[in-house]
């Protein structure tokens, strides 16, 4: 009986660990998105920069959808992720120079 309770507890703990592992992270700043859903939430909305990227993502998604591009959501996030990467690289070279 006690063993069963112990197993139940560890299962719950394991599930919680999996849940926290699957927590979404912001594409812009890399922070964990509080109350966000994995695969759905992509920007944390708590920073001006992140909200700006989110707007950019939505604009792109609409643009791709209007153009009839397949998977507009996927294409939009890929484009925004690339733009964030480029911007970060530019910032890096600016600070090192
Ligand atoms: Zn963020």
Describe the fold and architecture.
The structure is a single chain. This protein is 66% helix and 0% strand. Helix 2 packs across helix 3 (72-96). The protein has helices at residues 2-21, 48-66, 72-96. The model has no long low-confidence stretch (mean pLDDT 83). It is an all-alpha fold and 97 residues long. Residues 26, 28-29, 31, 43-44, 47, 50 line the site of zinc ion. The site of zinc ion has 8 residues, from loops.
Q: State the shape.
A: extended
Largest sheet: none
Work out the number of β strands: 0
Structural class: mainly alpha
Q: Which ranges are low-confidence, i.e. pLDDT below 50, for 5 or more consecutive residues? A: none
The fraction of residues assigned to DSSP E strands is: under 5%
Oligomer: single chain
Whole-angstrom Rg: 19 Å
Cα end-to-end separation: 66 Å
The overall number of domains is 1
Q: Give me the strand/helix succession.
A: HHH
Q: Give the distinct bound molecules.
A: zinc ion
Query: What value does the average pLDDT take?
Result: 83
- Helix tally? 3
Helix content percent band: 55-70%
């Amino acid at each position: 009986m006690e063993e069963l309770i112990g197993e139940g507890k560890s299962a719950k703990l394991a599930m919680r660990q999996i849940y926290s592992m699957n927590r979404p992270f912001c594409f812009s700043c890399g922070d964990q998105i509080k109350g966000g859903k994995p695969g759905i939430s992509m920007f944390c909305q708590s920073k001006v920069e992140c909200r700006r990227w989110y707007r950019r993502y939505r604009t792109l998604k609409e643009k791709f959808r209007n153009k009839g591009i397949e998977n507009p959501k996927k294409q939009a996030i890929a484009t925004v992720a690339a733009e964030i990467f480029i911007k970060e690289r530019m910032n890096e070279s600016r600070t090192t120079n």
